[in-house]
Amino acid sequence: MKIGIMGGTFDPVHIGHLLLGEFAYEDFGLDQIWFMPNGNPPHKKTEHTEESLHHRVEMVKLAASDVPYFRVNLYEAETEEHSYTYSTMREFNRQYPEDEFYFILGADSLFSIEKWRDFRKIFPTCTILAAMRDDKDAQSMQSQITYLKERYNARIELLQAPLVEISSTAIRKRAAKGLSVRYMVPDAVAEYIAEHQLYRNIEKRDEQN
C-alpha cells in the first residue's frame, strides 16, 4: 500500500489537517492516510499528562472516523520518550516492508528540516510531500526541493495545499474563552471540546508557544 503519514500534536486536530490529508490522498493516489498524534514532541510545549494525550487522541479518532481511508496510528503517542521522525519512519519500514510511505510536512518544515534530529536518516525511509499553500513562493519551494534532492538524494514532491487560515493555537484561545470553534474543527470534535471543557485556563501555556 501507499501510505501517507501526518504527524503532529493535533492539539486539537482541525479541518486544515484533514484537508491536507485529503489532498495528499487524491493527488498522489494513496491508499491510506495515517494521522499520528505525537505523545512527547521535542520541539513543542504540550501538556505532558495522560489526560491531555487521551483527549488529543480521542479528537483525532473522532475526526478520522467517517473517512474509510483515514487511520489513527498511536506509535508515537504510546512512547514516553521524545519521538523523532527518523526513528519512527525507520520503524515503520521495518514493520511494514511491503508498504510505501509518504511523509507529509509543511513548507516551514521543509526549510528547517536540516535542524531535525538525524534528518539524513529520514530520506531513505519515505517520499516527502511538501505542502505548498497558495500564498507561498513556488520558486523558493522548488529551489529548496532541488537543493535537498541534490545534496541528500531526498525524494520530495510538491503537495498543493489548501489555504486555510486556521491554527490549533487560535482554536485553543477561542475555546478558553468559551467561544464556538464549530466549522474550524469537525462537528464531533467541537462537541468533544465543549463537553469536556477543554483548553480552559491555557493562556500561559500558549503565551510560551
Overview of the molecule:
- The chain is an alpha/beta fold and 209 residues long.
- The protein has 8 helices and 6 strands.
- The protein has helices at residues 15-27, 50-64, 85-95, 107-112, 138-152, 168-176, 187-196, 203-207, and strands at residues 2-8, 32-37, 70-72, 100-106, 127-132, 156-160.
- Strands 3-2-1-4-5-6 form a 6-stranded parallel sheet, sandwiched between helices.
- Strand 4 (100-106), helix 4 and strand 5 form a beta-alpha-beta unit.
- The longest helix has 15 residues, at 50-64.
- The chain is globular.
- The termini are far apart.
- The mean pLDDT is 90.
**How is the main sheet built?**
6 strands, parallel
Biggest sheet, spatial arrangement of strands: 3-2-1-4-5-6
- What is the number of E strands? 6
Percentage of β-strand residues: 15-25%
The class by helix and strand makeup works out as: alpha/beta
What overall form do the CA principal axes indicate? Answer: globular
Instruction: Give Rg in angstroms.
Output: 17 Å
Kindly state the mean pLDDT as a whole number?
90
The termini sit apart by: 37 Å
Continuous helix count: 8
> Unreliable stretches, pLDDT < 50, 5 or more residues?
none
Order of helices and strands: EHEHEHEHEHEHHH
The residue fraction in helices comes out at: 40-55%
